[in-house]
Structure formats: C-alpha cells, structure tokens
Amino acid sequence: MFTSDLKLILVNIFHRHGERTPLKGYDKPIGRYELCKEVDGYNLFIKKSPKSSFSIFIDKISNIFNPMRIKSSAIFKYSYIPPKNSECAPGQLTDFGKNTLYQFGKKLNKDYIGTNFLSHNYSNKDINLVSTEFQRTIESLQWLILGMFKSIKKPIEINIQRKGLNGAYASNYFEDFKSARIKHRKAILESRKKDIKTVSNYFNDFLIKFTGNKNFKITGIYEIFDIIMCSGGNKRGLFNSFNTNMYNIAEEICIDMFFGLLKNKKHFSVYAGDLISDLCQKISKKIINPSENPKMYIFSGHDTTIFPILHIFGLSNNEWPKFGANIIFETFMSKEQKYYIRIKYNDQILSIPRCKKHYNRDKSFCEIKDFFDICKSYTSGN
Question: Hydrolase: is it a keyword of this entry (predicted)?
Fold first, then answer.
C-alpha cells in the first residue's frame, strides 16, 4: 500500500454518515422503514455528569460498547425518538447505515492497523474523533470504530463539533452569506421552475401507482431527491424503475442549490474555510513534530462536509456524495524530510488536478507546499 521510500506519518479522514431515513418523515405514506431493529439495540442515551457541564454517553449494552466520553465547548443537547417495532425515526441511521460504517472500519483496520501504522489496541492518544452533534453522525462513528478494532478496552472520546467545522451550519453565523444563499436558492428555484414541476409531476404520478394515495403530494425538489436517495441507499425497491433522467435533473438542481455558491472563493471561505484551515493546521503540526500523537483524525459529518472538500481540490464529479462517502488525506515524509499528501476518495487514489509538483512524477503524491497553496487560495481572509 505504501511506497518504501515514503513514510506515512498522519491520516485525516472525513466521512459522511451511513444510510438514513428521509429527513422529513415522508416515508410513512410511502411505506414504513422497518430498518432500525439492530441500530435501536445499540442506541445511546444521555446522562449528565455531576462533576462537569459535559454530557456523557453511556451505551445500553455495556458488553458491546464501552462508555463514550463526549467533549463539547458548550452543553450538548441530545434528543432521541425511539422507534416502535424497529420503525425508524426521520433522519435516523438505519441498519444498512450501521453496516456501511462498520465495513468502512474493517477496511481501515486492513489499511492502517494491518500495516502496523496504528496499534491493534484502540487508544485515544493515537486517534482523535470528531462528530457533528447529530445522532446519525455520532452513531456512524461508533460503528466505524467497532469495525476498525476487534477489542476496545478503553472509553472512546468523541469531540462534538457544535455547528463549527461543518459549513452548512457554520455559515449561519454570517449574515452576508445567509442572504446570498437565500437569494441564490430562490434564483435556482425560479430558473428551474419548469424542470422542478416536471420532476414533481412524474414523482407524484409514480407514487400513486404504488400507493394508490392520490391525496399525498410532494413538490419540494430536495424532498423528492432525499426520498429517492434514501430508498436506494436502504435497498428498498420502490424506485428501481424511476426514470434516471428525472433523478439526474433533481440531483443537478439540488447540487446547484446547496453548493453553487462555492464557486465564489469568498463564499467558500465562509462555508468551509474553517474545515480546510483545521486540516492544514493538523498537517502542519505533524510536520513540525512527526513523532507527536495523534496519528489519525476522523471527522464524522455529512454530504455538506464531503462536497466542499472535493470542490476545493478540483475532485468534484458533480455527483451528490453517497451515504458513507469518505475522503482520506495521507501525509508522507521522504528520507530527505520532504512532505507529500495523497488523497483517497471512496478507496480510490486520486491525483489533485490543481497540484503542479509531485513525488517522482507520481501525480498521486502532491508536494506539501502546493497542497497548502491550494488551501490558502480558498481560505485567505476567512
């Protein structure tokens, strides 16, 4: 996996949570999502520590998971709606989502524990875990770690990022950006009104054939896209015969609505500048002291985490990041103490189009200065 001339010194991983149910609960008229039986058995509940303002997660099944310590810069609020008879709540991680991250964890075990980069025993010193404050991202990270380590003897610490390093939420603090985003989305909805109506009519006619419910109607383009995406991700056959062109139109519109502003570097800086700056700071810190821990950072986030990262390095293929999508940044050191970055997206090694200098003409290894220059061009002034 690694070249003998380069030594791996740091791994930064960003992943989207696993398969979930539709966010707004529109699945009920379409059919119940009874896909949370296994996940529900491992769901976490909240317990306040009498000695701290931090919230502590304790698993209901102690012989499966150790207590998970949650760190937060403010009091962390957690709400959980338990499913009935394994029926999922809106936006909940499903059993398919659990397995997606569990299998990803097993792949990380092979790539980084099997190669002796990390110890076989979990250690908070070796791995730094961060998640957004959503139940599905926290649980996804939990399943990833369970797949990655066969034995966990120490409590797992997860740092909760409260609307900070995830652009869709961090940007809410900037009024200029909020106004620009609202204006942009309105413009997209207006300019694509005809396409949205076409997709909406087709979608609702499609549903009537399966449900017989003529009173149930959805017109929001993202709601439509979300329902189809969740159905496919969870292996439900309802939309197997859905017109591919209609789906592609919905995806194209949603990408433009959510991420179209990223083409403007100033807007990107607001949306994802902190995320990229934080990545560079971690790499810089490791370069200054290669022997210092941690060796790996894992950030459990969303589609709105993955897409901006792909965009900044010219790796976006204008496809919505799938459930469990992951991007890995590997930092290597040469014998001459020069440093290089290699990127993997969904286990595929990619070359960075915007990188001009490489290691031994291997375009998958980008010289650190070029890498940092790309980052700075999108984060300066943030």
Answer: yes
Name, in order, each residue with C-beta under 8 angstroms of 122's C-beta and a sequence gap of 6 or more.
145, 148, 149, 151, 152, 153, 154, 156
Beta bridge partners of 296: 11, 127
Tell me the C-alpha distance between 274 and 309, whole Å.
11
Please report which confidence band the pLDDT of residue 346 belongs to, taking 50, 70 and 90 as the band edges: very high
Tokens standing for 163?
Answer: 């609307």
288: three-class secondary structure by DSSP: helix
**Cα R_g (the chain), whole angstroms:** 22
Strands (E) across 164-314 are located at: 296-301
- For residues 76 and 83, give the distance between their C-alpha atoms in angstroms, rounded to a whole number: 22
Quote the tokens at residue 284: 């810089």
The closest alpha carbon to 294, from 165, 153, 122, belongs to 122
Are residues 299 and 140 in contact, defined by beta-carbon separation less than 8 angstroms?
no
- pTM higher than the cut 0.90: no
Residue 11 has pLDDT above 90, yes or no: yes
End-to-end CA distance of the chain: 36
If you ran DSSP here, which 8-state letter would residue 20 be given? B
